[in-house]
């Protein structure tokens, strides 16, 4: 795939290919571009109104709107690796793990499973009622 603009020679060749209705294979062999690409480029080249529309769109959307810049080390051109955050190794107590397993396996109605409701006795309302009793 060729990137960039067309030289004057490529423009002449493209016009010739379009005029004689060359196949995609011929266009690819001559310029490395498909026939549709050549037609679109010549339409852009010949129509000043179309050029204005395309340039206006480019201003609005920007050429590189979806590209994210990755900071790179100038010496090696490798992406920087953030080392300022410590690695956390979270270890739970056996009591917390068994409580989590119980909550996960506790019997609940189907709607409670679907909606993500806590098992009976673990909701904020149940805890408040226990505290009042």
List keywords for this structure.
mainly alpha
Give a written overview of the molecule.
- The chain starts with 7 loop residues before the first helix and ends with a helix.
- It has helices spanning about 10-20, 25-30, 35-45, 50-60, 95-105, 110-115, 125-130.
- The mean pLDDT is about 80.
- The chain is mainly α and about 130 residues long.
- Among the domains are: about 10-60, no CATH class; about 105-130, no CATH class.
- The longest helix is centred in the middle third of the chain and has 14 residues, at about 50-60.
- It contains seven helices and no strands.
- The protein is elongated and about 90 Å long.
Précis, in short:
The chain is mainly alpha-helical.
């Amino acid at each position: 795939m060729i990137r960039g603009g067309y030289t004057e020679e490529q423009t002449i060749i493209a016009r010739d290919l379009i005029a004689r209705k060359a196949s995609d294979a011929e266009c690819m062999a001559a310029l490395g571009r498909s026939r549709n690409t050549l037609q679109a480029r010549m339409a852009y080249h010949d129509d000043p109104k179309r050029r204005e529309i395309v340039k206006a769109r480019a201003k609005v959307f920007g050429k590189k709107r979806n590209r994210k810049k990755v900071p790179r080390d100038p010496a090696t051109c490798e992406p920087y690796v953030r080392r300022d955050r410590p690695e956390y190794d979270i270890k739970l107590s056996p009591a917390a793990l068994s409580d989590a397993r119980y909550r996960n396996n506790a019997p609940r109605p189907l709607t409670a499973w679907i909606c993500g409701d806590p098992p009976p006795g673990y909701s904020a309302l149940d805890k408040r009622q226990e505290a009042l009793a």
